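Anyone? Bumping this.
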Amino acid sequence: MANNEKTIEIEVLRYRPEEDDKPFLQSFKVPFTDDMSVLQGVQYIKDYLDGSVSFRWSCRMAICGSCGMMINGVPKLSCKTFLREYYPGKITLEALKHFPIEKDLVIDLSDFIGKLESIKPYIVPDAPRALEEGEYLQTPRQLDRIAQFSSCINCMLCYAACPQYGLKPEYLGPAAIALLHRYNEDNRDSAKAERMQLLNAHEGVWGCTLVGYCSEVCPKDVDPAAAINRNKVNSTIDYLLRFVAPRGGN
Amino acid sequence: MDTIKTDIVIVGGGGAGLRAAIAAAEKDPGQCIALVSKVYPMRSHTVAAEGGAAAVTQPHDNLEYHFNDTVAGGDWLCEQDVVEYFVAHAHEELVQMEHWGCPWNRKEDGHINVRAFGGMKIERTWFAADKTGFHMLHTLFQTSIKYPSIKRFDEYFCADIVVDEGRAQGVVVIEIATGRICFIQAKAIVLATGGAGRVFRENTNGGIVTGDGMALAYRRGVALRDMEFMQYHPTCMPGTGLLFTEACRGEGGYLLNKDGYRFLEDYGLGPPSPEPRNKFMELGPRDRVSQAIWHEKQKGRTIDNPHGQVVHLDMRHLGEKKLRERLPQIYELAEEYMGIDPAHEPIPVLPGVHYTMGGIETDGRTATNLPGLYAVGECASVGIHGANRLGSNSLVELCVFGKVAGEEATQFVKTTSNSPTGTLERQASEIGNRLRGLVDNPSGKERIAVIRSEMAKSMEDGCGIYRTEAGMRATCDKLAELKQRYRSINIEDKSSAWNTEWLLAIELGYLLEVAETIASSALNRKESRGSHQRLEGLEQRDDQNYLKHTLARYAGEGPPKIEYSPVKITKLEPGIRAYGEAGEKAEAERKKKKEAAHGK
Amino acid sequence: MSTRKPYVRPMTGWWLKNPVYIRYILRESTAVFVGIYAVILLIGLIRLSSGEAAWNGWIDAMRSPGAILFHCVALGAAVYHAITWFAVAPKVMPPLYFKGEKVPVEKLVTAQYILAGVIYLVLLGLILWS
């Protein structure tokens, strides 16, 4: 491998909270082979060039959702983006947009976690079911309604893509709404009415102006824009129903 | 030093930790449960499990079959009473996951669908496409939000266990965001920190799988059991080691050598059939399949690849539609990481380290011999995997024994009161000083990455699929050297907030500790069993001398002290472990013998 | 004291920093042209109600090169908006199934173009027929 090694320039937007007032760019030269991911490039930097560069990562296979970053301005999972795609140009890495930077490529995602916790992301059954009664029935078709929206890995790329979230951080945002939609669409669940209140709010679906970029950057084809905009229709119906039957047709 | 008082602290936010937390919260909603995880729970490595979770489901299946598969699969090194409990509770736990919302694949009528898996006599593996671990983890994480008594400490790194008056009384943790060191005082501690696959070079594991809980318990005097048994998964991506699930073969994929020949036939797994047949050919257990690939390599029948000698995983005959539906993530991995369309090309694969069968020694109720300390999941050795784990048994283990751990810890809490904080805090703050001392080490000159990669390489060389005396000795010596060099490790980052270099250094300490227990345990087991295969005349199983568990005990700076403990046999006497046609014959004979015994 | 000091990046000029955002702003700004067009039409109606001379004056104004240019631009804007709308419409509606299979997004988009074409032809037919 060593004989055909090439070198690529990787710029990292550094921010060290204990030393810096604002972020700055630092450039590194990284030897690479064609099968190396951007994540492996940053790992090389940390291992051999500058041990203080901080970033999150774990699974390396695009399922744990840790390693999202802005790669030349585009939010991507660094483990499934490859250095060769940028060579011989340079790569600029930055922490995911629209989130506060904790350090270097590490963002503060506590805001999202709070939102995730707020949407009741669990099955609320109509009546409790004993284990002895076995599983709920769910046909492949019913599963298909939730399959896509339950594939979200919480990687935050969609938030980094959403300018509305950047402008109004109180907006519930793509991943949280997609997950909410996943539970609302689940035939085993009965808490739709409660969750609709979150969607109906100004910070709910109406915070979305359909930029649509969230779905473009999603590495798992969750299509959060679809979840949000279908719920604009649901929210409108919910609103109108309230005139007919107060308490949201409950 | 900040002290946080709680009833139970659970270390690890993966499947086992979350299941334990929920069980504890349900058992006693009044108690306070701290869930400490060095990553946000949904990042835990349970997320990467692909194939599925086993439980007796079909009418023609029964608990005895699952029991027999597991015990024989583990080459009789399983605690059989624990396996009995395990298979009996597997189904209800998976139903519980279903009630919590796990999107299991279904049959047309809406009932759970099952798929075939290696070493399993009957199809009994529940699955959610090929992202079963992902769906189970997210389901558990999201469900855990329902319970207000679970207080999460996300991105807190567990750095030590505080032991006083002969029992575990809390943990010292680092808040990663600030570098602040705190003491979490608890009446019971549950370790659920996962495996230690990162001690090897080519592995399927995430960067966080560094044996933290194993090393911590070990240093506190709890034995690590059966550590020599590391599972090589036969089908991994060359270079990165990323996993191609066993379900690829469960759905009907073939393994081919360079001549396009289904070579498993030559290793006691035949005869081949076009359709997958349980316990035959590609549905043999992982140890046997990985060993067969090793032999093919010796015979020069593997294929050259920049990252080593590979064989082909051929799924072309399954067609794109089925592959996209059943194995979407595999499709994605092959396409995006390797530029291969599995519907039209075979995937080059090689074995990689996947699972740590051994772990913290516990009884069948997840208790260690240190009062107040429990361990569950891959970090533990509760006794169900023996010398080789069957695919799809570990996800169920998380649920079955996660629940047990949560309930047992709750029970323990009821009979225990918190000790005065003073002495514990003093101990915790000494630990804190030692941890910070790592950063300010004046003699620092060794690079973390260099030691780590030398360790991983040495483990692969000495403790791989086949092991030799000289190889293992060399690894033991290398590890001793690396431990010495570790003392003068250099951390460039002197800051406190998000100092991941500091954490990597602590993790490297864990890895070295665990690596040493693996190598020493392997060196001392002079037989071949399951995933521990020796050459030089030790190719056979030796029940006379080694039908027993290895216990690696901490012995200060040097290598561990190796002891042995008996194996619990209840229903299935040790017998021939065979698959394919030979397996069917062996099973028929077992049955005949049993009937004859009953007849008398 | 905490060692945390999260840095919040400013959003200034965000819409120029990514071609996707530029296209989004363009799409949104088509509303300006459609809006002006609607006002012009409204004025035409008022003119119509205030007698023949006023109406003819409005018609003359519409024939000026400036007005024609504006209408061309407005048409372009409306078409662009329609294209973007057709593209996202499948996201807004619940999934459609045909014989147990989910209808693919591309088919839904094509169906909209066909539908739009048919409507235009019918309208054209009506105008020519009258």
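Late reply, but here is one note on the structure posted above: The domain at 437-549 of chain B is CATH 1.20.58.100 (Methane Monooxygenase Hydroxylase; Chain G, domain 1).
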